[in-house]
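Project standup — Tuesday

K.O.: blocked on the structure for the chain from last sprint. Re-posting the sequence here as requested.
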Amino acid sequence: MPIGKIVRNALPFSNVVATGQATNQITIGKTLNNMQLNLGGTALTKANINMFRLQANGKTIFEGSGTQIDLINKYRGITGADNFLDIAFEDLTGLDQLDRMIGALDTSFGISNLSTAVDIAGATAPMLSAQLHEAAPQRTADGGFAPFSGLIAKQLRYGFSVSASGELPLNFPFGKTGAIIKRVHVFHGGHVIGALVKEDGRVIHESTLAKNEYEQIRHGRVPQVGVYTIDFVLDGNVRNAFDTRSAQSVEWIFTTDAADSGYVVIEYLDTLGNL
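H.V.: unblocked you, prediction finished:
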């Protein structure tokens, strides 16, 4: 490619209606850094997006509601706008080029089809379009692949519910061959107050809500109300992410002070075929 990055309009969405599922196809062949949704019409807000899914070869690799995606972006420090929503595979908070670009979605190999599905509810005469921020395929000067090629910044969502206060143990998949976890975002109703993470019985993270959020603020993150984030890459160094590829067991134990329910959204670095 004659330039390092390009910005172009995505193919149009079909079935953009007040309540229904809008879809579009993404032309493959380049590295997708960011897909920027533009919300328009009489009334289409992020809260009207019940679910956004991006599927590669029919497999979901990125999902979340409009509100969840927006709050994760805000946690990273991305100043948003009401009518734009970034689906980011790059992480602009990384320390260097590797930290920022590892996980960018190279569609030039292993992917034959890339599509989105946007579940809209309660909008009024909505309009939806997108721009793609892309780069060249992740190749080295000799035509080989960069060391991090093949790793995708996946975002997957899991529900939870607890009927009383106490300890809430949860299990999240990390695949047959293990995945790398950057961040875990617990979207709750205001009653998750602590977290404990163990790998093979050894504590790797232990925090209360107040201490956890102070440490995030100290590193320039922006904690969000109603979201308990466990961030393994607080300093922007992806080498500190939680690599589960050698783990036999991973325990996630959250402390609640009352009944609660919600969703856990996990940011992974993973191969297409694992999770």
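K.O.: great, moving the ticket to review. The CA atoms of residues 39 and 45 lie 7 Å apart. The chain has a mean pLDDT of 94.
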